[in-house]
Amino acid sequence: MNNPPPQTTVISTRSTVKKLRESPSTFSKIPFRSRKIQKLASHAAVDDPTESPQPSVIKIPKSLSTKPEIDTALNHLRLSDPLLAALISTHPPPKLSTCNSPFLSLSKSIIFQQLATKAAKAIYTRFVSLCGNESDVVPATVLSLTPQELRGIGVSARKASYLHDLSDKFSTGFLSDSCINTMEDETMFQMLTSVKGIGPWSVHMFMIFSLHRPDVLPVGDLGVRKGVQCLYGLKELPKPLLMEQICEKWRPFRSVGSWYMWRLVEAKSKANAKAQTAEGGGF
What we know:
Layout: H1 13-22, E1 37-41, E2 55-59, H2 67-80, H3 82-88, H4 102-112, H5 117-131, H6 139-144, H7 147-152, H8 157-171, H9 177-182, H10 185-192, H11 200-210, H12 222-232, H13 240-246, H14 254-280
Antiparallel strand pairs: 1-2
């Protein structure tokens, strides 16, 4: 995919958004780029929009698995986007969660779909118990469970078919934990969305939170869209094309930029709730 390289100069956000709306580029349904050696902005000052920072060459990690890799991502985001830099300074850095096997993570993702967290956790706990324990949640075990057994622990008939389709694709070798851990983002996106019940949003969440892939932009996630709208002062929620264009400057660490959009929305929500409580207390 031939995408423009990361920006190495800082320009006005208002003018950027205006130009993006006037001259949209072709939208890619798969917002990823292969990890290669890329030129990124150096430590030049970002408060002078006329100054062009000198490029430096770094290797993009396959996964944000260590603190130094996250620090590299944060440094790039600070230099490439002053508005995001201010947000980063007000929140702690992302914390890495423990990586489960891809099959277990995808199975859990299917179970959690469109359910309240408490209900989803209860069903997932019963699902793991039915398999034995988490280490026993493997394709052969899940395929051995009948739809009736899965229905008995609260898994819908549709989700039972999704779990069986996922297990079948792992059993036949179409997918595997090892290939998922090593394949490029674009290929993974195409292969995982071929599984029943796994759509673009589920793949994006899996790549960010399970695999810790650094350059994923979930253009369909409401929280990330609201964060971009708030950060850049947009009148409306940005659509996928505008999201792609505005967040291009975050490459190759758009996953981390997205993480801060969730934090921004959470902070704004808490501030609004606090203001409403204070206002109500005056009556």
